[in-house]
């Protein structure tokens, strides 16, 4: 059973609008509330975790029915000595020492790339139109 204050690793079982259900390796089930995902404001949890993701959490408290409250942001700098990424297989997403560099960062990079790409394409089109305009005269 999970003890309050301990750092443990687990698997995200379900992603909800207000948090993520995490099952620890010892079988304990608990909720990581949306406010405990990251230090920054979290608008959409699915940008930070996905079902099946391996996460490191800190046990904050116990509720009725052997359910627990977890925090990912308070466990973000924790080191687990027995953490071995290869044990989980290539198909399972792994978040070791959880940080916010996830899908949100990828989306930002993708938006930046698309913006730069469209700027370059418009420059090329304008250049080609000018060349064609000169040839027609």
Detailed description of the structure:
This protein has 137 residues and is α+β, with helices and mostly antiparallel strands. The protein folds into two domains: 7-100, OB fold (Dihydrolipoamide Acetyltransferase, E2P), CATH 2.40.50; 101-137. Helix content is 25%, strand content 26%. The chain is built from one helix and five strands, in the order βββββα. The protein has one helix spanning 103-136; strands at 7-15, 19-24, 29-33, 54-63, 67-71. It has a five-stranded mixed barrel. The longest helix is centred in the C-terminal third of the chain and has 34 residues, at 103-136.
**Mean pLDDT over all positions:** 79
Question: Distance N terminus to C terminus?
Answer: 83 Å
The unreliable regions are 81-100
Identify the overall geometry.
Answer: rod-shaped
Strand element count? 5
Largest sheet: 5 strands, mixed, barrel
Helix-and-strand structural type: alpha+beta
CATH architectural type of the largest domain? Beta Barrel
Topology-level CATH name of the largest domain: OB fold (Dihydrolipoamide Acetyltransferase, E2P)
Superfamily at the CATH H level of the largest domain?
Answer: Nucleic acid-binding proteins
